[in-house]
Write a structure and sequence with these properties.
Layout: H1 2-11, H2 14-18, H3 21-46, H4 51-80, H5 86-92, H6 95-114, H7 120-130, H8 137-190, H9 194-209, H10 214-230, E1 238-239, H11 240-258, E2 262-268, H12 270-273, E3 277-278, H13 284-293, E4 302-311, E5 314-322, H14 327-330, H15 335-348, E6 353-359, E7 363-371
Parallel strand pairs: 2-4
Antiparallel strand pairs: 1-3, 4-5, 5-7, 6-7
Helix pairs in contact: 3-4, 4-6, 4-8, 6-7, 6-8, 8-15, 9-10, 9-11, 10-11
Length: about 375
């Protein structure tokens, strides 16, 4: 449960809202203060030097690690490695080691000038380093011997920073995907053709004037559709039963508009729907497209057939419609709605769906199979 809360907090952008530039600065300062304290305690325990000399040694070690860290994280990795300049990056990896040695030499000069060291071996090594000339044999020897210290000391903050970068990258990607899905869904809701609504209202009005009892049924179908698109489809997943109910209402209303000139069928087994979950309004653009392009052909008849079948973890959809015998309109079959659904399928069901479209001379067929993962309660994860 806590893991899910953490992931939701990260994916919702909570981490980025928390990790502001001010918090980032405070985190960096805290990190180096902690490293300084650890170094001070370690040197104080192992060497009997004055507090001032101990603090200077601790400051030297901390600044060396900080120099190594910032050069790696903010220059070598982003400027060289991430831009594909691998050879230059590998060569530049040696630079922090040499700079840390130069820093050591400078601070050793300060220590010799301002402090009296109690331990003879420490005094000798500091004196030798303070007098070392850059790029001498001793300079390279000291750089090689101290490299392991900087690698191991800088590894934890580097790993922490890379981990934070990964979290921020994942957060941005998840937020972009979520925002895309929200935009896709909002677009789909707007795809319910206004002409369809006006035609439906006109049909209801006409039937009302005639006193037909069918008018009340149409109002109920339209009301259910509006309720579904405005409220229930806001969820990431809806029950397949509700999605099929929405399609049934839509097809019932279209059947009134087409009348006897169309053969319209929705074929499914209600018992198969069970507790299956699906992204809302995912199939609707394909069904709407079938009615849009399945209008009366030369024979004066048209048909729209929608089949839904559930087998184990697979939900299978098949939408078949007749086509106009107008060549220039055949190229327009598909459109924005279907393109939108393709994108949503890639985002919501990556590697878990199969979409095939057969655009023959006589009819247009869409077949979609979605594989769902179910938990112990039978609902999709």
């Amino acid at each position: 449960m806590r893991k899910h809360r953490l992931l939701n907090w990260i994916s919702s952008g909570g981490f980025e809202k928390f990790y502001t530039p001010r918090v980032r600065l405070q985190a960096h300062i805290t990190l180096w203060v902690v490293i300084f304290i650890i170094q001070y305690i370690n040197i104080g325990v192992n060497y009997s030097e004055s507090p001032g000399a101990t603090a200077t040694f601790a400051l030297r070690n901390m600044l060396g690690v900080a120099l190594f860290f910032y050069l790696i994280i903010y220059f070598i990795i982003p400027v060289l490695f991430r831009k594909g300049r691998i050879v230059a990056g590998i060569v530049c990896l040696t630079v922090p080691f040499f700079l840390c040695t130069i820093l050591n030499i400078l601070i050793c000069k300060v220590i010799i000038a301002h402090f009296t060291l109690n331990d003879p071996s420490t005094r000798d090594s500091v004196q030798k380093l303070a007098e070392c000339r850059i790029f001498s044999n001793y300079f390279f020897d000291f750089t090689l011997k101290s490299s392991w210290y900087y690698l191991t000391s800088a590894a934890p903050p580097i790993a922490l920073k890379l981990g934070l970068d990964i979290i921020k990258g994942v957060t941005r990607r998840l937020r972009v995907e979520r925002d895309n899905l929200n935009l896709e869904l909002s677009f789909l809701k707007s795809q319910i053709n206004p002409h369809f609504l006006f035609n439906t209202l006109n049909n209801i009005y006409t039937l009302t004037l005639k006193g037909s009892p069918q008018a009340s049924d149409l109002i109920l179908h339209l009301s259910d559709m509006m309720r579904y698109t405005l409220y229930e489809s806001d969820s990431a997943k809806v029950s397949l039963e509700k999605e099929v109910g929405f399609l049934r209402n839509y097809m019932e209303l279209e059947s009134i508009r087409y009348g006897k000139a169309a053969e319209i069928n929705l074929d499914f087994n209600e018992e198969e729907l069970g507790d299956q979950q699906i992204a809302p309004l995912l199939i609707f653009p394909f069904v709407e497209n079938a009615f849009k392009h399945g209008q009366n052909n030369t024979s004066g008849k048209c048909f729209v057939l929608v089949k839904i079948k559930v087998e184990s973890r697979n939900i299978e959809f098949e939408i078949i419609n007749s086509k106009k015998d107008v060549p220039e309109l055949r190229r327009s079959v598909g459109g924005i709605g279907q393109s939108n659904s393709r994108k949503r399928l890639e985002l919501l069901y990556p590697d878990r769906h199969l979409l095939t479209i057969d655009n023959s001379a006589e009819q247009y067929t869409v077949r979609l199979t979605i594989t769902t993962f179910t938990n112990l309660h039978g609902t999709e994860n």
